Amino acid sequence: MDMQSILIAVGALILGGVLGFFGYKKTLTEKALKFKEKMAKAREIEEDIIEQAKKKSHDIIERSE
Question: From CA 3, how far away is CA 16, in angstroms rounded?
């Protein structure tokens, strides 16, 4: 192999590694954003359940008085 072929192969390897890394990073970022959305929805549902439970407990307390 001559020097030019070696340099082209090394350059292609580096370019492939860089593109692969940024593609992987983008995938991780997208997964993190989706996870944050799911957690926000879960938090809203949890808050609604707690609020409903508080209302029911206040109703029960008022009925018992």
Answer: 20
Q: What does the pLDDT average to over 9-14?
A: 93
What letter would DSSP give residue 58?
Answer: H
pTM for the model: 0.57
Which letter does DSSP use for residue 1 in this model? Answer: -
CA distance 17 to 6: 16
Distance CA 10, CA 55 (A): 67
Would you call 60 helix, strand, or coil by DSSP?
helix
pLDDT (average), residues 38-48: 96
CA dihedral (25, 30, 31, 35) in degrees, to 10, reads 140
